[in-house]
Amino acid sequence: MTLDLSLVTDYISHGTGLVVLNPATNRVITTVKEYDAASVESAVIDSERAFKQWSHLTAKGRAELLQKWYGLILENAEGLAQIITAECGKPLAEARGEVAYGASFIEWFAEEGKRMYGDVIPSPLAGKKIIVQKQPIGVISAITPWNFPIAMITRKVAPALAAGCTAVVKPAETTPLSALALEALALEAGIPKGVMKIIPTTDPVSVGKVLTEHPVIKKFSFTGSTPVGKLLMKQCAGTVKKVSLELGGNAPFIVFNDANIDKAVEGALISKYRNAGQTCVCANRFYVQADVYDEFISKFTKAVSGFTVGNGAEEGTIVGPLIDEAAVEKVEGLVSLAKEQGANVALGGARHNACGNFYSPTILTDIHHSNAIAQAEIFGPVAPVFKFDAEEEAVQMANDTPYGLAAYFYTQDLGRSFRIMQALEYGMVGVNEGIISTEVAPFGGVKESGVGREGSRYGLDEYTEIKYCLLGGLS
After folding, report:
1. The CATH classification of domain 6-247+449-470, taken from the options 3.40.605.10, 3.30.1330.10, 3.90.550.10, 3.40.50.80
2. Where is the Aldehyde dehydrogenase domain (predicted)?
3. Catalytic residue positions, numbered
4. 1, 24, 140, 429: which has the fewest Cβ within 10 Å?
5. pLDDT tens for residues 383-395?
6. DSSP structure class, residue 463
């Protein structure tokens, strides 16, 4: 694959800057211009100026520009996918899927922005009218992760722009190219300069303080780890910003004894090993009822053993690299500790022999729920499988975590489906489904997995303020 960087030519630095590496080879892709705290402050002021014009454009006018942006993303889908694979590592087929998924938020919110309705509330007094309006909140800032370098930006920026806000976005240090390509296409679509600004940096701490503490910024959105999210939330408190946080997950995947085991294995494969297990909603803990435990393990292991591990740009690759050496070392440590605590390695359990940041697809069995790996967000291609006897036991173990982002379970019992959906303490639940993300449904968690929702009509509200107006003297 010959990587085409024409979309980001204007952002490439031929001197110092942010160095972008390919995690499959650890080779330099390119270097891009970076921002320090002072230049980010200037970008915020530019965004405030742009807001005054953008917010006064009609919803239809904004929608037309967003639709043009959407169309350009689809026209450049293959080039964008290649950039994702090069800097993120995920297989090219998954990268193509991400481009389509990311673009879907722009298409959805281009239309949804035209339906930012208010209300007229019947007044208790004669001669008065109560009107409720939704207005754009103002300049918003966002910090996005590397594992979905396009979709995590569009999921935040599309509703913000549709509502009439402007956005300043810090992409992950490892994946700035995808973000910069999005900005280039937005400008090509006619979205005015300053409406969406991408600010790569090698100084995330100082830049993060600007994005969370600057008084001009009225809303902050973050996707990333829970510890970092808590810190950023504290930094936003000084100016009482509106905040949405999509944080860590520890998703249970429950297989009951009445499940279709073949379908459960199919769902487990795509939920666990997509992007080498580096997704916030991927299955992290597998709970399988004792009656079907052996059957599930046998079929699951057979399927995973057929995975091809390698560079995401190579044809047939199913599992690509982890993002960097630190990620590999984290997974190694978790698996090593699990083995010390009695886990059996049914498959994998070590680094892959491919050069680069690769870890073998792994299945661990004979694990007790007290094992430390049950509480960790693995973020790698490792599936620990626990055994349970009773339905109540599965629910108790599934909820035994401070996280509450996504959960999955398989059953063919309708009554059980409704009981478990109600009992699981998670913001999103997949029933007989291993993939739940879509632009039309609200994405987000409970407990320490975050606040707020992205996508769907609820996602637009995150970027608005509700204004109540009382009109008197009408009698």
Report:
1. 3.40.605.10
2. 18-468
3. 246
4. 1
5. 999 999 999 999 9
6. T
